[in-house]
Amino acid sequence: MAAPAEMTVANLAGQFVPNKALSDDVDSSLALQGVAWIIRKGISLASPKFILSQSTDENGVAVVNITVAGVGSGTTEARVLNWEPVDGKNPLFGKTRTRSRLYNSALERSETHSDEDYAFLNGTATKDGTPSSWAEEASGQNLQCIIANEEAGWTMEQVWGFEEIDGKRYHTRRSVVRKGSQVERGRLVYNYVA
Question: Superkingdom, according to UniProt (predicted)?
Fold first, then answer.
């Protein structure tokens, strides 16, 4: 189901499930992150539900809370939107350090971005290079996360937003995973369910 027109990343709350038909295959990205084949196979068959809510922490900073249900015992994570590093432990990815923020207009270009990475993360191209674009938002904002696992040697840069695909508005997350000279890109598309 399409996401409500009034929903933006600044007020992102609801329940979402992956739309596997519209999403890119993320197996190669998960492999680059060191996820074992048997677990990747299970992920490809699973139908998790992502429950998102927003809150503020004790310092008044906005937080996106993520609960993943329907896979094992489930997990809960938070994206603290102040661009400060937050250490965590994820059952799938191990020890991570995450920085998250909302940003306006185009993503800042970093020295790690190839032309393809930059176009992909900014929503102007799909994984195969065909044109795409973020849906226009009243807030003009997207959400950026950089998640790193120093022990495993990978970094994932992720951008959340909304896109119009086949005439419907979907919540999407675009990721670029880097490990050494290896790079994998993928877009996850989510159906809004409640």
Answer: Eukaryota
Write down the domain spans for the chain.
9-192
pTM of the model: 0.93
Whether residue 182 contacts residue 113, with contact meaning beta carbons closer than 8 Å, is answered with: no
The predicted-structure confidence for 83-102, as pLDDT tens digits, reads as follows 999 999 988 899 999 999 99
Q: What letter would DSSP give residue 74?
A: -
- Residue 19: CB partners within 8 Å, gap ≥ 6? 170, 189, 190, 191
**How far separated are the first and last CA of the chain, in Å rounded?**
9
Residue 68 per-residue DSSP state: E
Q: Are 86 and 99 in contact (CB under 8 A)?
A: yes
Assign domain 9-192 to a CATH class. Answer: mainly beta
